[in-house]
Specification:
heterodimer; A: 292 residues; two-stranded antiparallel ribbon; 11 helices; 71% helix; B: 344 residues; mainly alpha; ABC transporter involved in vitamin B12 uptake, BtuC; two-stranded antiparallel sheet
């Protein structure tokens, strides 16, 4: 029972990170109808920037802030330089271009930093508190809860309570009408990419220290997990992404804890297949049919 | 096939984009393949051993790129899981070969197993489109190390297995034998693919890609066509993986990373999706570019540059080709001539 409680909290903490990452995917999907397959590599790039800054200055928090800014910048760059020119006549094109970006980013990071795992420190201890003799949460888990909670609240307020959020939703929903009403649709798209990339970088910053460390391919499995989370929630729904993230996190935690860590990717694949074949609209999707 | 259909197919299609419609007589694939076989054998007698080994590698890649270009280019299904299917073929060959040391038998078993694997993935994939399909196949690609570590008594986790091979006859050097084996398999696979896509199956594939509703109305069974396409390309990937296992005389999950699957996509995009000749150029590039990148890395004396430079080059090429010439490099001349004509 103790183990179960511990694994549940661990799963929730992991799940929130996947939720943040899935949110990033959902943001871009809603804005541009593209699943950004380069999200993982972009996040790794931001984490490497943070790693460099932290090593140079000795301050984790400076690195953290710089990573988010680097994510924003990278999102703008990717959208303005590459994604804007993708021919959308076939849904394959966006995916293939993103995969090209994955190769470019992985190769560049490998050239600059090498292909070894670099250990990354955490700002808080990862030793769990004991409540009544049961190991439950660590300070780091609380930090994860707070960080992801903040992101969710900020994004919700942004999209529902501000003029810019309204413009972004309008630009995604009805681009032509929005343009007539004076909304800069292209600008909103860029903003969406920037926001998503920043959220992805945050997820990267949170997840990388809990794995082996930072590596050009550090986010591959995380990306698949987050993609699964987004699909569980239906790619259209931010709330679904959060719930999907928690589901995936708990599944991974229980599988790793009760069976073996090596089984985790297979469990993810199984869940993805089940959702895609059983409930293809996701649990929270608003659309009737999957036409992508 | 009715007479009407045949007449419709035989009617010369005016070539849009050129001023004079011209009819090209297409060579029968068997002739092209026979010429290719002669060329390869001649090459193996002229090249030094190491170049023969590289030639063999090209042949092994050609198998998988040919199958993938049919799946993605003609049927519109993007697969990022073909690296995993190659691993399936490679591991099957290794296990069978180490048990019975009979190469033809091992290849046969590898083909059967990848057929089954391809059918399973294909059945799951047949209902999916675009990003969903890409995500699912990506998950398949990620799962390889997980499988080999979980069942480590069979697959020996990260170390992998070595492959027992009977040496080739005394008179033939090892590398030449490897080149013959790989190209023999590749040419056989490509001939079968070429015959397949010339006929009704190829038309079904293209119909499903272009307009599912119309294809359904014309009586094409969409799901069956898609699963079949996936199985065919999976078998090609399995043969390719088995060849790589023979070439390296070992298999390990590290040989089939996600980047391999991305490389394969790059190879078929650069040659032009759906073209078997394009798949050949892609396979050649997959061997040539890393070699070039390696020599650049050696000249600068940088360890980190060697493998990674190839990644960057492949990635840039993939992005640029996708943005500038979605039809692949083969389409660039016609695009340029169209631009010139438009500006006159």
């Amino acid at each position: 029972m103790d183990r179960f409680i511990y694994l549940t909290f661990d799963g929730l903490s992991r799940g929130l990170v996947y939720a943040a990452f899935a949110l990033a995917l959902v943001l871009i999907w809603r804005a541009a109808r593209i699943v950004n397959f380069a999200q993982g590599s972009m996040a790794v790039a931001a984490v490497y920037v943070a790693y460099s800054v932290t090593n140079a200055t000795g301050s984790y928090w400076l690195g953290f802030v710089v990573a988010l800014l680097a994510g924003l910048l990278l999102g703008v760059l990717v959208e303005r330089v590459v994604m804007r020119f993708v021919d959308h006549s076939s849904p394959l094109n966006g995916v293939v271009v993103a995969l090209g970006l994955v190769l470019v980013l992985q190769g560049t990071l490998g050239i600059v930093y090498g292909n070894e795992y670099q250990p990354v420190e955490t700002p808080f201890s990862r030793d769990a508190f004991e409540v009544g003799g049961i190991a439950m949460l660590s300070r780091y888990d609380l930090f994860v809860f707070a960080a992801v909670g903040t992101v969710v609240v900020v994004l919700t307020l942004l999209f529902t309570r501000t003029a810019i959020g309204l413009r972004m939703r309008a630009a995604a929903f009805a681009p032509d009408v929005s343009r007539l009403l004076g909304v800069s649709v292209g600008g909103m798209l860029t903003l969406g990419w920037a926001l998503a990339a920043a959220v992805g970088s945050l997820a990267g910053m949170l997840v990388v220290p809990t794995e082996l460390g930072v590596h050009p391919t550090a986010m591959d499995v995380v990306f698949v997990s987050a993609f699964t989370a987004a699909v569980v929630g239906g790619l259209d729904s931010p709330i679904g992404a959060v719930v999907g993230g928690l589901v995936v996190g708990l599944l991974l935690s229980y599988v790793s804890g009760y069976i073996d860590v090596t089984v985790a990717p297979m469990a993810i694949l199984a869940l993805l297949v089940l959702v895609l074949l059983g409930k293809p609209g996701g649990l929270f999707s608003s659309s009737k049919a999957r036409v992508a | 096939m009715t007479d009407v259909q045949q007449k419709a197919n035989a009617a010369p299609v005016p070539d849009v984009g050129s001023a004079v419609p011209k009819r090209r007589r297409r060579l029968h694939p068997a002739l092209v393949i026979a010429a290719g076989a002669v060329l390869v054998v001649a090459l193996t007698y002229m090249l030094p051993p190491f170049r023969n080994y590289q030639l063999a590698t090209m042949g092994a890649y050609f198998c998988v790129t040919a199958g993938l270009t049919v799946l993605t280019g003609l049927n519109g299904q993007l697969s990022l899981g073909h690296g995993a299917l190659m691993a399936t073929g490679a591991y099957t060959l290794a296990l069978t070969q180490n048990k019975w040391v009979n190469l033809p038998l091992s290849f046969a078993v590898a083909v059967v197993v990848t057929t089954v694997a391809g059918a399973v993935i294909g059945l799951a994939a047949a209902r999916l489109r675009g990003p969903y399909l890409a995500g699912l196949t990506l998950a398949v690609a990620i799962v390889v190390p997980s499988v080999t570590s979980t069942f480590d008594e069979t697959f020996n986790s990260d170390q992998g297995l070595s492959v027992i091979l009977n040496p080739p006859p005394e008179t033939i050097p090892m590398e030449r034998w490897q080149a013959w084996l790989c190209w023999g398999a590749a040419l056989a696979v490509v001939l079968l693919l070429a015959l397949l896509i010339r006929g009704r199956f190829g038309r079904d594939l293209r119909a499903v890609r272009d307009d599912e509703t119309a294809a359904k109305l014309a009586g094409i069974n969409i799901a069956r066509t898609q699963v079949l396409a996936f199985v065919v390309s999976a078998v090609c990937a399995g043969v390719s993986g088995a060849l790589f296992a023979v070439l390296a005389q070992s298999v390990s999950p590290g040989a089939f990373p996600l980047t391999l699957s991305l490389f394969l996509v790059m190879a078929i995009v650069i040659g032009g999706l759906g073209s078997l000749f394009g798949a050949l150029w892609g396979a050649v590039l997959l061997v040539v570019l890393p070699t070039l990148a390696q020599s650049v890395g050696e000249q600068t004396g940088s360890q980190q540059l060697e493998g990674n430079l190839a990644l960057v080059v492949f990635g840039v090429v993939l992005v640029v080709v996708m943005l500038a010439a979605p039809g692949g490099l083969a389409s660039i001349p016609s695009r340029i001539s169209r631009l010139i004509r438009r500006n006159r």
